[in-house]
Design goal:
The chain is α/β, with parallel strands linked by helices and 405 residues long. It contains 14 helices and 17 strands. Strands 4-12-11-10-7-5-6 form a seven-stranded mixed β-sheet, with helices on both faces. It has a four-stranded mixed β-sheet with strand order 1-2-3-15.
Length: 405
């Protein structure tokens, strides 16, 4: 086969490891919040590459940043540093609580670094006994063995045991369940998503995060926020911790940070960062000049007040439109989430059938997501035009009308 032979969905089954089950449609082109497939059929994109395409498809600013850097320097390894990485780290420190940054390629890698840092910090400051991590049921932190073990969904660990030890799972939004597990002698960190993404788009209650901060302070444990999905402007704040007014010791960012280009970051304080001394951790491509140049443009764009304000306005429009459809066809009990990370919770008669809505929407030219079997998830571009929101809602209603007949 040469590179010019036709590519079909069937080819996936012949050449790819079967850990994914992609739909029949193959996208080939995107612009803004619209995508076209191999047959030149158009779709409105409410999925955003699972909260990744923060500025939509083929954003001129991102293309320009990538092209400009591509003509200069692609890769030098971390034996040397590079200008785009240093600029991006400085920007992230200026815009957040952070004083130090570590770059990686994915959310899973950023979380792996965060969990290793938490353990090493406690090992240095308190001794080897203080190594336990508290996470939460239904959480998701990545697919490495460590991150999938910290994650609170047993299905992702099945067949990969034994898992790393010293990990406990409390109940999300239940502070008492954390109090029962936390220990000054043993707990090194509490790891939490301010909004559980894969776990059903479940926002934390402010009192819960405030309570975690207090518990961590009382027990000399680090508070780690996984903002892989909730960060990079998704909630209408640059990071969700700013929405809640609760500052973690370590924060991880990926997905929307690169607007579609693979990049991730772990943010922390200078004191905590010191525990990852020379040679203790690394990444071949972490801090790659191409990735950092693109991420710089993303952050420069989405950190503008008018963009973040626009996220909240678009959220309200999308939420109201989906709720109106939900009430008309009795399919949603409620809609939860923040900004442009929304979860539409299916009513009892439709529980377990979220994927049916995904398929029906795609048939009408709309791309959406699920978050488990009972929740339809929406994570479109942060700058999706009102016209595309309206068109997407019309297409979704057509899909629902056919599905509920």
């Amino acid at each position: 086969m040469n590179s010019r032979e036709p590519v079909t969905r069937e080819l996936f089954n012949d050449v790819m490891v079967p850990n994914y089950a992609p739909g029949a449609m193959i996208p080939v082109r995107g612009e803004g919040s619209r995508v076209w497939d191999q047959d030149d059929r158009e779709y409105v994109d409410f999925a955003g590459g699972i909260a990744v395409n923060s500025l939509g498809h083929a954003h001129p600013g991102l293309i320009g940043a990538l092209q400009e850097q591509a003509e200069k320097l692609w890769h030098v390894s971390n034996v040397l540093t590079n200008e785009p990485a240093l600029r991006l780290a400085r920007t992230l420190c200026e815009l957040t609580f952070a004083e130090r940054v570590f770059f990686a390629n994915s959310g899973g890698e950023a979380n792996e670094a965060a969990f290793k840092l938490a353990r090493r910090y406690s090992w240095q400051h308190h001794g080897p006994e203080k190594h336990e991590i508290i996470s939460f049921t239904n959480s998701f932190h990545g697919r490495t063995l460590f991150t999938v073990s910290v994650g609170g969904q047993a299905k992702y660990l099945e067949g990969f045991e034994p898992a790393p030890g010293g990990i406990h799972h409390a109940t999300y939004n239940d502070l008492n369940s954390v109090k029962e597990l936390i220990s000054t002698e043993k707990t090194c960190a509490v790891v939490v998503e301010p909004i559980q993404g894969e776990g059903g788009v479940m926002p934390a209650e402010p009192e819960f995060l405030e309570g975690l901060r207090k518990l961590c302070d009382e027990h000399d444990a680090l508070l780690v926020f996984d903002e892989v999905q909730s960060g990079a402007g998704r909630t209408g704040h640059l990071y969700a911790y700013q929405h809640y007014g609760v500052t973690p010791d370590i924060l991880t960012s990926a997905k929307g940070l690169g607007g579609g280009f693979p990049v991730a970051a772990m943010l922390t304080t200078a004191k905590v960062a010191d525990s990852l001394g020379v040679g203790t951790h690394g990444s071949t491509y972490g801090g790659n000049p191409l990735a950092c140049a693109v991420a710089q443009k993303v952050i420069d764009t989405i950190s503008q007040p008018e963009i973040l304000k626009g996220v909240k306005a678009r959220s309200e429009k999308l939420r109201k439109g989906m709720m109106a459809i939900g009430e008309k066809y009795d399919i949603f009990s409620h809609i939860r989430g923040e900004g442009l990370l929304l979860g539409c919770v299916l009513t009892d008669p439709w529980k377990g059938k979220a994927k049916d809505f995904l398929a029906a929407a795609q048939a009408e030219g709309l791309m959406i997501l699920v978050a488990g079997a009972d929740v339809i998830r929406l994570a479109p571009s942060l700058i999706i035009p009102d016209q595309d929101i309206e068109e997407g809602l019309e297409r979704f209603e057509k899909a629902v009308a056919k599905l509920t007949k």
